[in-house]
């Protein structure tokens, strides 16, 4: 059996929404180099809808795949819906993660939430 | 496919496979049985013991067959500890970058009242003999220092350490799992009392190894039962595995002189190539290292991603990153040589075999360069380093 599902490998090999949004109005960075995974999410929100999202990740295969999947799950969605994103939803969309890699999906959830919080702080919404 | 993880395990040699098959098919008797088939197996066992002993400069009676390196390490340390305890000596000297088979055994002994000193291995990954001398106390019963490190490949000054131990009358064990069959060694010249080795690191099968115990060093059993192995390790002997180990070792040891310069040249070619990657560093001393070992840290990337993408390119290697070990901490070896967590996560070990060509090496260099560049292109750490927000470490 392979370490990761086909879906994880597919997102790891071809991550969606990689990069930076120069005029992002919500940025979140979580994790630390000590534990080995860092995720940075950039959001461009207009009319309470996530028009664009990009990520940068330092981390393992599942960290990169989780970041990619999380961006797909919230892109084009209303902010209220993105707020509901859970690590479970990310892991399930990836057809599961090994137990000791679940923290990577948690990090993806936290990165999205941190970026949304930054957006709220900036806009006062 | 380019297999560059020979420190993890090796492909069995044809000689080893043949030896194993022939025992399985023809000499399947129990060495403890007195009829002909049993005595044939016994003869194979003792021939293997003779062959193994010869390679390391020991007497056959000083060789005990085990299930591998881990068991040999456990038994060596447990035996020395038991002897020490009887004499009221409960201090052990070792190093911070031993294999877990050694470190976890020492940890257990600590819980049983032993005092453990783990020596610094410095930035170059080398133990200083004078620091061994300084660490020895009146109640020291054992010094255990690995012959060559399994991650960074550094070869320790075993002979000097052995001399110091013998001057002071202290037992000296070395985990030589990465050294046996790869570099010349001799237990008498090196003043070694106990030595561990494992067959699958020198083109033998997995699950077989041996422990050398100098005549006069009383071993403690880990496994009780029948009288096999001089009563020191019960259980019907793994005759096919042992025969294969002996065949593999004879061949590997016989080729050291011929292979070393070729391997070392490939290693150095690889080191030169990977050094061209900005903000990278070789781990461990450049010259005092196994001829097939290359270990690098690359700033701004994580090792598991690197391994997965190299695997896609047909290169099989390993890393000391936390994510490859299932724990949150990166390799204790890299931390022991002073690499900080951020950098230790981005490590790559390539352990070369004799089969690789210069073209393979160049392909590895190109592939690693491409993958590191790609992973850095969306690494937030790399961004911070390049924008000057954080200073480069390497
Ligand atoms: C230095 C060292 N010691 C001990 C071992 C354990 O050997 P084995 O896998 O045969 O138990 C290994 C191999 O992983 C090793 O590299
Ligand atoms: Zn991870």
Structure description:
The complex is a heterodimer of chains A (125) and B (394). With 125 residues, chain A is α+β, with helices and mostly antiparallel strands. Chain A has one domain (6-123): Sufe protein. Chain: A (Alpha-Beta Complex), CATH 3.90.1010. In chain A, 44% of the residues lie in helices and 22% in strands. Chain A contains 5 helices and 3 strands; from the N terminus they run H-E-E-E-H-H-H-H. Chain A has a 3-stranded antiparallel β-sheet with strand order 1-2-3. In chain A, helix 1 packs across helix 2, helix 2 packs across helix 5 (102-123) and helix 4 (87-93) crosses helix 5. With 394 residues, chain B is of the alpha/beta class. Chain B contains 13 helices and 12 strands. In chain B, the strands form 3 sheets. Chain B has a 7-stranded mixed β-sheet with strand order 2-8-7-6-5-3-4, with helices on both faces. In chain B, strand 5 (140-144), helix 6 and strand 6 (171-175) form a beta-alpha-beta unit. The radius of gyration of chain B is 22 Å and the shape is globular. Chain B starts with a strand and ends in an 8-residue tail after the last helix. The mean pLDDT of chain B is 97. Classes of the chains: A alpha+beta (125), B alpha/beta (394). The A-B interface holds A 9, 12-13, 15, 18-19, 29, 33-40, 55-64, 100-101 and B 300-302, 304-305, 308-309, 312, 321-324, 326, 328, 330, 341-342, 345, 378-383. Zinc ion binds at residues 36-37, 59-60, 62-63, 104 of chain A. Residues 36-37, 59-60, 62-63, 104 of chain A line the site of zinc ion (ZN).
């Amino acid at each position: 059996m392979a370490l990761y599902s086909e879906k994880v490998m597919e997102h790891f090999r071809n991550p969606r929404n990689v990069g930076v949004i120069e005029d992002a109005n919500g940025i979140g960075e979580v994790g630390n180099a000590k534990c080995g995974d860092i995720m940075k999410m950039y959001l461009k929100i207009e009319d309470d809808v996530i028009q664009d999202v990009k990520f940068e990740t330092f981390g393992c295969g599942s960290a990169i795949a989780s970041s990619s999947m999380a961006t797909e799950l919230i892109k084009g969605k209303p902010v209220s819906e993105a707020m509901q994103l859970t690590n479970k939803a990310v892991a399930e969309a990836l057809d599961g993660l090994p137990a000791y890699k679940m923290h990577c999906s948690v990090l993806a959830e936290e990165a999205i939430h941190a970026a949304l919080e930054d957006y709220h702080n900036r806009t006062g919404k | 496919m380019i297999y560059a993880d020979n420190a993890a395990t090796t492909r069995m040699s044809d000689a080893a496979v043949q030896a194993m098959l022939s025992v399985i098919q023809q000499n399947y008797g129990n060495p403890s049985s007195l009829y002909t088939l049993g005595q044939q197996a016994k003869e194979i066992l003792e021939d293997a013991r003779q062959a193994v002993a010869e390679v390391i400069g020991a007497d056959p009676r000083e060789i005990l067959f085990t299930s591998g390196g881990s068991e040999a390490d456990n038994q060596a340390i447990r035996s020395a500890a038991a002897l020490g305890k009887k004499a009221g000596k409960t201090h052990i000297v070792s190093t911070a970058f031993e294999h877990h088979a050694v470190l976890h055994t020492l940890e257990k002994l600590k819980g049983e009242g032993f005092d453990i000193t783990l020596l610094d291995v410095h930035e170059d990954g080398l133990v200083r003999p004078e620091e061994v001398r300084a660490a020895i106390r009146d109640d020291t019963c054992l010094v255990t220092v690995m012959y060559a490190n399994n991650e960074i490949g550094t070869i320790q000054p075993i002979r000097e350490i052995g001399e110091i131990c013998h001057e002071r009358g202290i037992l000296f064990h070395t985990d030589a799992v990465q050294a046996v069959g790869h570099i010349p060694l001799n237990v008498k010249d090196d003043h070694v009392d106990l030595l561990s080795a494992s067959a699958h690191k020198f083109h033998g099968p997995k699950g077989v190894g041996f422990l050398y115990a100098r005549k006069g060093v009383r071993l403690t059993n880990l496994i009780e039962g029948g009288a096999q192995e001089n009563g020191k390790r019960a259980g019907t002997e793994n005759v096919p595995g042992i025969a294969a180990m002996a065949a593999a070792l004879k061949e590997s040891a016989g080729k050291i002189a011929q292979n070393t310069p070729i391997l070392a040249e490939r290693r150095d070619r690889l080191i030169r190539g990977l050094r061209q990657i900005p903000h990278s560093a070789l781990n461990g001393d450049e010259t005092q290292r196994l001829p097939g070992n290359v270990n690098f840290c690359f700033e701004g990337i994580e090792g598991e991603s690197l391994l997965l993408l190299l695997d896609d390119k047909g290169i099989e290697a390993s890393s000391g990153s936390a994510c490859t070990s299932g724990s949150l901490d990166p390799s204790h070896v890299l931390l022991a040589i002073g690499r900080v967590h951020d950098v230790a996560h981005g490590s790559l070990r390539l352990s070369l075999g004799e089969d690789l060509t210069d073209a393979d090496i160049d392909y590895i260099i190109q592939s690693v360069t491409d993958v590191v560049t790609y992973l850095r292109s969306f690494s937030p750490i790399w961004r911070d380093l390049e924008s000057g927000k954080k200073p480069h470490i390497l």
